């Protein structure tokens, strides 16, 4: 049997629905989802295998204008772009409820000019709006994409190969739509030996996924600004007598943030801990004992060593 295997990059603006799409595609919770933009901080690989095909999906931080933002945001953008060089297919996601934006034009122009493989444009979250509004959003994306495409074609070469309709409408909340898109994407993979086992879900260690599950609760339970300056480091991760003991440190940037995370008489930290434990137990299918600590590391989002140590985030241009 001829085997197929390839990389699929999920790109799009923050909040476009990339992590939700990845989790739906895999049928498992791997990537952090919240209603705040820029939840995903790192490149996360999810493995999906069926029949003779294996697709390796790379979820990326949402690409955004990072000028004036901490170094962390600049590294996040570089991580998102670096996956293009590995990818055989790019899924570019646009939230149909938000419609096309100038950022989409900018990023898609880059992909059309530089990426010499396959491109699939997806309009996401179609379940959130009425059929007429979906149609309006679709037409808006079709027209703007065509203008962009023709404009580039007139002056330079289009490198990538468009596959499927532009845009393909999709809801990550509708399993039947995800299932048929999954079959299509698997069929588009190039011939090649599988790089992972049939039952593998990710290249990330269990500790990383668990740290992300705790970070997701912090994102969900804190206000708008704070979560971006927070990292989670797992200090102890051990299975004993059918219980998983996890001890983790929440890293914050300033003393005042420590107070916010802990809350009045520890109430917020307790609530984060309770919800994270429930989520961890669901993920690990085991009883979990979770301990959380909070530590202040001033300026960690600006320091490349600390970004690597606390958020496992490396500048791809600095890689050896
Ligand atoms: N109703 C509905 N909500 C969705 C869908 N896809 C994503 N969402 C919601 O949209 C929000 C953002 O989704 P994410 O998957 O975290 O988006 P993202 O593109 O990974 O975001 P970043 O991490 O900022 O790059 C979350 O509240 C999701 O629950 C969808 O198909 N339908």
TrEMBL record:
The lineage of its organism: Bacteria, Pseudomonadati, Bdellovibrionota, Oligoflexia, Silvanigrellales. One of its GO terms (cellular component) is plasma membrane. Residues 4-191 form the Era-type G domain. Residues 12-19 are annotated as: G1. Monomer. Residues 170-172 are annotated as: G5. It is found in: Cytoplasm; Cell membrane. Pfam families: KH_2, MMR_HSR1. Keywords: Cell membrane, Cytoplasm, GTP-binding, Membrane, Nucleotide-binding, Ribosome biogenesis, RNA-binding, rRNA-binding. It comes from Silvanigrella paludirubra. An essential GTPase that binds both GDP and GTP, with rapid nucleotide exchange. Plays a role in 16S rRNA processing and 30S ribosomal subunit biogenesis and possibly also in cell cycle regulation and energy metabolism. Belongs to the TRAFAC class TrmE-Era-EngA-EngB-Septin-like GTPase superfamily. Era GTPase family. Residues 124-127 are annotated as: G4. Residues 38-42 are annotated as: G2. GO terms for biological process: ribosomal small subunit assembly. Residues 59-62 are annotated as: G3. Residues 214-298 form the KH type-2 domain. GTP binds at residues 12-19, 59-63, 124-127. This is GTPase Era. One of its GO terms (molecular function) is ribosomal small subunit binding. It is a peripheral membrane protein.
């Amino acid at each position: 049997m001829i085997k197929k295997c390839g990389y699929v990059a999920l790109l799009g603006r923050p909040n476009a629905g990339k992590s939700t799409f990845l989790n739906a595609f895999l049928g498992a919770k791997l990537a952090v989802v919240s209603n705040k933009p820029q939840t995903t901080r790192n490149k996360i690989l999810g493995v999906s295998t069926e029949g003779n095909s294996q697709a390796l999906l790379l979820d990326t931080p949402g690409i955004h204008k990072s000028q004036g933002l901490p170094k962390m945001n600049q590294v996040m953008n570089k991580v998102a772009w670096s996956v293009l060089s590995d990818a055989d297919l790019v899924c570019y996601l646009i939230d149909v409820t938000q419609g096309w934006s100038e950022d989409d034009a900018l990023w898609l122009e880059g992909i059309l000019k530089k990426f010499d493989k396959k491109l699939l444009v997806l309009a996401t979250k179609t379940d959130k709006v009425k059929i007429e509004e979906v149609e309006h959003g679709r037409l808006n994306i079709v027209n703007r994409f065509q203008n962009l495409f023709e404009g580039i074609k007139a002056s330079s070469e289009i490198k990538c190969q468009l596959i499927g309709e532009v845009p393909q409408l999709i809801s990550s909340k509708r399993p039947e739509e995800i299932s048929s898109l999954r079959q299509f994407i698997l069929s588009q993979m190039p011939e090649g030996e599988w790089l992972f086992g049939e039952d593998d879900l990710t290249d990330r260690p269990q500790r990383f996924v668990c740290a992300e599950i705790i970070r997701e609760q912090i994102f969900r339970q804190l206000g708008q600004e704070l979560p971006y300056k927070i990292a989670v480091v797992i200090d102890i991760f051990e299975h004993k007598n059918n219980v998983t003991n996890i001890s983790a440190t929440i890293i914050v940037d300033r003393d005042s943030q420590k107070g916010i995370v802990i809350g009045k008489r520890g109430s917020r930290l307790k609530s984060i801990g309770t919800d994270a434990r429930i989520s961890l137990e669901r993920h690990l299918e085991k009883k979990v004992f979770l301990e959380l600590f909070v530590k202040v590391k001033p300026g960690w989002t600006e320091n490349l060593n600390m970004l690597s140590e606390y958020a496992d985030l490396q500048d791809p241009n600095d890689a050896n």
